[in-house]
Design goal:
423 residues; mainly alpha
């Protein structure tokens, strides 16, 4: 019997091996331009690089720097070579799992040939585009970031293949942990998060509740970004978030469904997981008190922001309850546990940023931003030293932005002679 899965694994690793050989033949033997030299030196000396610090990448670079290469630069460059190659392997495996949804029953090599050709073509185009190839040859965060993104893509495709309902959530927890850990490499991995969440909802509608149950937590960080102290406005939203999520995550807290007699007994009973009135009143009183606490500390403008964010938080839980009563969400404990588990794993993963504080206090040779306090560490993570980027006003006309975008695109797969690009 033909083993299509085994062939896909072989082709995926073969693509990664081919890319590895090509990258080794073209990798930078020493230091290249831009941030390459900084990343090599920071990793070799266990220093603190430019914001946001990239502590995970720094620690990985240190491990590679002690490998028996001719020089530390080549050793740290090899990290990107290996990460870029493995990323292409996971990309092929993810494409192969996508193709399973329409390729039908594969009984021989010829039946699986379209999948093999499509996957190999996609990986070669990605792996040997100018930007990808360039960043896979030198010490930079982007190749390792691509490894995080493609591996999580493969994991979510693997999760979607589970047949039982609800599906095994361990894959999802691993995805959330890897993405949180990836923040210590490059924040670009978070671009994956909305797509993964929509994919989860597409396969299990219970995960629609993740949006509503997680919104109060995010709004607390919005208040924090407005300069509020954590124990004022943000604390109230975080308490509201924790109380509602813990309640829905633990069915033992749910009240017993009331027995209805008479004609109403034939109607479909409502879901028992409705917030008890005592909890609602307690949270309401706490929220009103914290409105005065926030206003007294930060003024009326902060109070307005608090009221808006608190209103949105209440509305999100209200819509969650409506979805629960209508039967769209049947098991509220699934999204609640996912939100709580994601926050716990994110906290563990983000704790690696304590490296910045520890090393800064030891005054390493390279100590950019000198984050020797927790406040300074948060500033580094938020990259406050850079001027904030805003959508409006635009710094250049839209036509010029498209010209710049086309300039990036046309160098990815250059046609020779270059005059064919009408440059």
């Amino acid at each position: 019997m033909y083993d299509h899965e085994r062939t896909n694994r072989f082709v995926g690793w073969a693509v990664g091996a081919f890319a590895l050989i090509m990258y080794l033949m073209t990798t930078a033997p020493v230091v290249a331009f831009w941030d390459n030299g900084e990343f090599i030196a920071v990793g070799y000396t266990l220093g603190v690089g430019h914001p946001p610090g990239s502590p995970v990448y720094t620690l990985i670079s240190r491990l590679f720097s002690i490998l028996p290469f001719p020089n530390p630069a080549q050793a740290v460059n090899f990290q990107s070579v290996l990460a870029g190659s493995l990323a292409l392997t996971f990309l092929y495996l993810a494409i192969a799992k996508m193709a399973k949804r329409w390729e039908g029953r594969v009984q021989g090599f010829s039946d699986g040939l379209p999948t093999y050709v499509a996957g190999i073509t996609a990986c070669l185009l990605a792996g040997f585009s100018f930007s990808y190839w360039e960043n896979a040859l030198e010490a930079e965060v982007y190749a390792t970031n691509m490894l995080v993104m493609t591996s999580t893509l493969w994991l979510v495709m693997r999760w979607s293949e589970e047949r039982q309902a609800p599906r095994d959530s361990r894959y999802l927890y691993l995805i959330m942990y890897l993405m949180s850990l990836g923040i210590g490499i490059h924040m670009g991995c978070l671009l994956w998060a909305p797509g993964i969440l929509l994919f989860m909802i597409f396969f299990e509608r219970n995960y629609l509740g993740v949006i509503f149950l997680g919104l109060p937590l995010l709004l607390g960080f919005v208040l924090l970004s407005k300069g509020m102290e954590p124990w004022r406005g943000p604390l109230a939203l975080w308490v509201f978030w924790a109380a509602t999520n813990i309640f829905y995550a633990m069915p033992r807290f749910w009240p017993e469904p009331k027995k209805v007699k008479g004609k109403r007994a034939k109607a479909k009973p409502g879901h028992p997981a409705v917030l008890p009135q005592s909890l609602v009143m307690t949270l309401a009183v706490f929220g009103i008190i914290w409105l005065f606490v926030t206003t007294s500390g930060h003024g009326g403008g902060a109070g307005v922001w608090y009221v808006v964010c608190a209103g949105l938080s209440v509305a999100s839980i209200y819509f969650f309850i409506r979805l629960l009563r209508s039967g769209v969400i049947e098991r509220p404990e699934i999204p609640a546990r996912m939100v709580l588990g994601t926050v716990a794993l994110a906290f563990v993963a983000l704790s690696v940023h304590a490296y910045l504080l520890v090393r800064a206090r030891l005054n390493p040779a390279i100590n950019e931003s000198d984050p020797d306090t927790w406040g300074a560490v948060l500033d580094v993570m938020r990259r406050t030293q850079y001027e904030p980027m805003r959508f409006f006003p635009r710094w250049t006309p839209f036509a010029n932005q498209f010209r710049i975008l086309w300039g990036y695109y046309r160098i990815q797969f250059p046609v020779f002679p270059r005059e064919l690009w009408f440059a």
